[in-house]
Amino acid sequence: MTTMSMKCGINVDFRRTTKFDSVTHFAYGFLKLSSCRPEISRTCIFPTKTPEAFLHGVGAGRSAELDLSTKESKSTYNLSDMFDVVAEDLLTLNKNLLSIVGSENPVLMSAAEQIFGAGGKRMRPALVFLVSRATAEISGLKELTQEHRRLAEIIEMIHTASLIHDDVLDESDTRRGKKTVHQLYGTRVAVLAGDFMFAQSSWYMANLENIQVIKLISQVIKDFASGEIRQASSLFDCDVNLDEYLTKSYYKTASLIAASTKGAAIFSGVHSDIIEQMNQYGYNLGLSFQIVDDILDFTQTPLQLGKPTGSDLAKGNLTAPVIFALEGEPELRGIIESEFCESGSLEKAVGIVEKCGGIERARELAREKADRAFENLRCLPISSFRSVLEQMVSYNLERIE
């Protein structure tokens, strides 16, 4: 048993955790992993490409922790095509990310190139631009403000920083088909690179001089840490209920998405009722995405997932399908609480979740959140931007149909 003490004065008992031989610490209020193994501390500096390498992010490769890897050729919706209405905004964003990272430190530049250059759908900044343009029509703005654009850049920087730290925590070797930052440069550099991006985004956030948005984004960074703590302290806990799962999912996923949509509406200067509807849209969309990802952990093949089926369950992270299944299958509790010590027990648990209706009930929950997201958009005037916001909800549900 390993107990990890945080600077905030909270002792977190990572029960039954034998996988990690390292210590955790907070930097800039975010939970990270700093390895004690001497071989990890070595830093490898790889030659960096020209800055233009960053500019290929739109529509290239996979998304981040929201798994958007379903076969788009067979899909009614394609994110790359949907984002055409804000393609120029996203291109400008990719260029501006270069200046935010800076080129003074070749290690940092190379680390940033690794994750930005790996592609990604840029879903969160796209949401900023879509809501910004949809709400700008209401307030009579002819063009997006500098604050809108800076918000999108800050959101993407925070998201990227969280990915770097998540990969360290999860000991992930690859992301979007490329080696992770900590695999290439070591854990110390990865943690510091993530810290730098958090700090840099915070500096730009302060310069927005909008206290409402500053508080909003600051809360997101706090939520990230809270979500990691909640997850780490409840591994293999079969008493975790649905409300606790949704709270954790909000902290880890939906909080940043809701901040993206709410912040965009704030900078458009629309009425508070519309701002709150955009906040709720991001909240419901984010939760729906997370629930769908948790379903796919059971229904997709290892090739589609890029990891073994049931990986979250194997780590003791109990998601919606498992929580629903536990309500009617007492045998499942015993298997989970044994931490899959017997050969074939994980496969048996996955089979129980599939057979007892846990996945279908999770589908219903994802649809419920999606329906609420559709409702949240009704306050917007009909436009191509509102249409894409609706299509994003449908796209997510299509992944489990």
Automatic annotation (TrEMBL):
Transmembrane spans: none
Cofactors, names only: Mg(2+)
Pfam family, one: polyprenyl_synt
GO cellular component: chloroplast
PROSITE patterns recorded: POLYPRENYL_SYNTHASE_1, POLYPRENYL_SYNTHASE_2
Gene3D superfamilies per record: Farnesyl Diphosphate Synthase (1.10.600.10)
Record carries keyword Ubl conjugation: no
CDD domains named in the record: Trans_IPPS_HT
Domain of life of the native organism: Eukaryota
GO molecular function terms listed in the Swiss-Prot or TrEMBL record: metal ion binding; prenyltransferase activity
Any Gene Ontology biological process: plastoquinone biosynthetic process
Keywords noted in UniProt: Isoprene biosynthesis, Magnesium, Metal-binding, Transferase
PANTHER family linked: ALL TRANS-POLYPRENYL-DIPHOSPHATE SYNTHASE PDSS1, GERANYLGERANYL PYROPHOSPHATE SYNTHASE
Family to which the UniProt record says this protein belongs: Belongs to the FPP/GGPP synthase family.
Protein name per the record: Solanesyl diphosphate synthase
Species the sequence originates in: Erythranthe guttata (Yellow monkey flower)
